[in-house]
Write a structure and sequence with these properties.
Elements: E1 11-12, E2 17-18, H1 28-51, H2 60-69, H3 77-90, H4 94-110, H5 125-134, H6 144-162, H7 190-198
Antiparallel strand pairs: 1-2
Helix pairs in contact: 1-2, 3-4
Length: 204
């Protein structure tokens, strides 16, 4: 976003420019010159990154940071999580989308920031312990629901470290152990399930 807006009637989507009849100050010509300058600046950054072999390794958000700030800014935990959700959605991995999106809600509900937006360094041992203490399992004493969230957060950390997004020295799971509850098996044997399926039960 460039922080400016015009009426849709004054915009040519075909050419990416304001129309000559646009009623703006300064005149449309000045706006279009400014747009061209911004576009040239962005293309110069992209060309620089391509020449240095860095472009292929950047995500959309990282490239955006580079264009806006003129330098690379490390992604936050939240931005990295958003990127993963986007990748899963594009790949049609709906299950992964649901699981990873639920982590964002978990951080809002049990973290210490109403926004739910965190830097990697903020997902530390103190925060993990605090969220564990605030978590209220549906069934008293069963913390397996909490374990699902914590394992997903750990998976995000592990992937980010492998991709060089964050320093392994900040990894909080060297100290924090994921709490889980041993439960009784509730599944029946396959042969019993097949027997039920083969039962001849007349209507009524």
């Amino acid at each position: 976003s460039l922080g400016r807006a015009v009426d849709p009637d004054h915009w040519s989507a075909e050419f990416g420019r304001l129309t000559k009849s646009a009623k703006v100050k300064p005149n449309p010509g000045k706006w279009n010159e400014w747009l061209t300058t911004k576009l040239d600046e962005a293309e110069a950054v992209i060309e620089y990154l391509r020449d240095n072999g860095d472009l292929a390794h950047l995500t959309h958000n990282e490239l955006k940071h580079y264009i806006i700030h003129g330098r690379y800014q490390p992604r936050s935990f939240t931005e990295y999580l958003d990127d993963l959700v986007g990748q899963f959605r594009a790949a049609g991995k709906d299950g992964q989308v649901r699981i990873y999106s639920s982590v964002k809600r978990f951080l809002v509900n049990y973290g210490d920031k109403p926004s739910g937006r965190y830097e990697f360094k903020e997902i530390n041992y103190r925060l993990l312990r605090m969220m564990e203490e605030k978590f209220q399992p549906r069934k008293t004493g069963n913390f397996n629901g909490l374990a699902v969230y914590m394992r997903t957060i750990r998976a995000i950390w592990n992937r980010a470290i492998k991709e060089g997004v964050v320093d392994a020295a900040l990894y909080p799971f060297n100290k924090y152990s994921i709490r889980k509850t041993r439960t009784h098996k509730s599944a029946i044997r396959t042969e019993d399930l097949l027997s039920i399926n083969l039962l001849d039960l007349p209507i009524g």
